[in-house]
């Protein structure tokens, strides 16, 4: 700011601090504006502005013809609680959020741990696409175009873009779902979300009260169990048996399920069980959330049609995501809503974000999809990942089939294996793998066969050489 | 996709639909792969893939040496609920969200109404900056640079960017707050949010249980009352009396307040009352959310220091926003958190968005601020808005002071006036203003003098000529 402003600010703070510190006391008369202007080498107008501001704030009081006086009594007793910082009373929701600490802290610690270690670590635990093959030029040009044309779009945008996302992107997603997944949906019933977590958390809040039961697969994505905990609902863990989760007549409000390819075990849910789940939802007046987290990549056979395509009643909510196919910083997902829930979801989303937060990226993605660039990219990546997948699976079956039972579902960006041996032997393997410099993800789960432990290896971001080296180290670890 | 894939898909659907429709019944034997390949002019391998997929999904069953059979019993009774769409059981939160309908629908209807009308309408109801003077070239170059350098940043970003935002942007905001608002805060205690609504909604959820009392000013920003309703808390409406809200010894968990310039009346909260609010929060173990929604613009005198600067205890949460200063599509705000609440807020934000959704814009803004471009832009806009503000206020005082009592707080992007006359006369004015083609925002409020109605005029986005024409129409409307 300019010099006059700086002087004004200095004078303001000088007077204010003097009052706060008790150097100018209640009722004391201040110098006239003329005197102060002369001693501070500033204009009388500036002094007047400072006095006016301090008067408006209640520090000073002006009495016509008598001058300006201190009107504020410094309460030095407030100092007594200066140092201590209060502990806040949190809502029940706030307390539950606070208790999510352990997991989040653990994840952070692990992430930090990774970044510290040397580049020689082979890290199968990162769930990231191979960005070295991403068509950045095409994508960047879409972004640049949206930025350049922003001004033309502003009026349109300010009038019509609701929290559920850019209309063109919702149209492009609807077309993609029709063509690639067999889901026939109106763009009005699609909401664009921040990755899939926003949808998972909002849906749980909308459908489950504290104390209600919500079913998840065991094991499942940690974000789902966090959302259920945050809502105060009770988790029912459904067992897996190789054909996906085992349906039961749960007394529950909602169910999270990954039918195309169970996360993380890779099991595919049979058609019969799909129908059983729909019947259950009908009987129980419950909702099913289908998380189709990486259906873009399949290396053999048909894409499995989503559970959503069997849903006649509007009981299935379908989640998709672009986080496995677009650059790291693009946090976009979507949810296909039953028409009766679309408006309520829109309002829930609007409570936190009345307008889309990443409109430029949403529009760039709409153009990227409509032009066919997105599907071309998927096909290219499918070939690349297929090669990596088969190489990894072959190596694992050759070198590690004695210790792990690798699931042969030919899709997605990771390979899952159940530990065949004793739990105590697994502990030794884990320690040894760490020391070999190979990281992976791990789950333990109650199955129909009791507590089992499994590991999964994300391979998309690794080179062929890294994959080979990683498996070699895992083999060394079991041999230890 | 390629032709082989299209044929495979066609066959898959033909078989699947035949089973669903009952044309292929349970136990029926399917043609051999050889027969089907010949009649469909496709390879046997393709037919095998289709059979494998349908088998995996449970539609078919293969018996070694005997052939392939239908394994699925089409349950045509499911058709009975095909047409009706279920009504979903919602949580208590979901029901409250659904009840927000009226307000949201109203706002949308109004927005549509605007867009339909001809361009001759003078619209004082849009709360938008004057984007015709925005330095788009500078800003776009910052965006382009972040997009180009994304690849270098990815590793760093994926390791360390938490849900609370880009570290450089949080540093830049901390520096801005120190320099311009007198708030000394560590960047770790700042969270970048989606506008200010995300902060308002999350904080209410974190601090207020259903049934708890939360104080707001009357009138206040509609988003605040929506967040309180969504949390199931009870609203206490605090009166205004020309010096901002009148403190009382409320039995409440939290208070929302706009001390610098009450929204929308423009009243400034006196220092004495600020101290009274802090004492109240101390006594009641309550939290105060200070929404500093447009403090960037002040046309005379000093910027008023925020309530936060008086907070010794960590009871004040300070909200700021960039939506009044950056282009429409940039939805960025921030919240200054007491250290004891920072971690819990981060977890609450991460539940919905584990990573920042608009990282490129966050980084562009960090560079825009650090380089001084942001403050230069603010100074330029301050001069421009100052001229518009004084012109509007002068016109209103000349032409409409008989009917409205215009508040003279010399700051912000709107001018507020209380209606001086009878409520019935106001109804006639409102109808007349509509027919004159001039829109504005309106609030009614219980004050210490009873129910009063007021209007406010946002002027930033209007040209001088539009402002003059708008006031002329308002005058015609009162003369009617």
Automatic annotation (TrEMBL), chains A, B:
GO molecular function, one term: transaminase activity
Gene3D superfamilies linked to this entry: Type I PLP-dependent aspartate aminotransferase-like (Major domain), Winged helix-like DNA-binding domain superfamily/Winged helix DNA-binding domain
UniProt KW Transcription regulation keyword: yes
Keyword match Electron transport: no
Domain of life: Bacteria
HTH gntR-type domain ranges (all copies): 5-73
Entry keyword set: Aminotransferase, DNA-binding, Pyridoxal phosphate, Transcription, Transcription regulation, Transferase
InterPro entries noted in UniProt: Aminotransferase_I/II_large, HTH_trans_reg/aminotransferase, PyrdxlP-dep_Trfase, PyrdxlP-dep_Trfase_major, Tscrpt_reg_HTH_GntR, WH-like_DNA-bd_sf, WH_DNA-bd_sf
Cofactor(s) needed: pyridoxal 5'-phosphate
Pfam family, one: GntR
Family: In the C-terminal section; belongs to the class-I pyridoxal-phosphate-dependent aminotransferase family.
Protein name: PLP-dependent aminotransferase family protein
Organism, scientific name: Paenibacillus illinoisensis
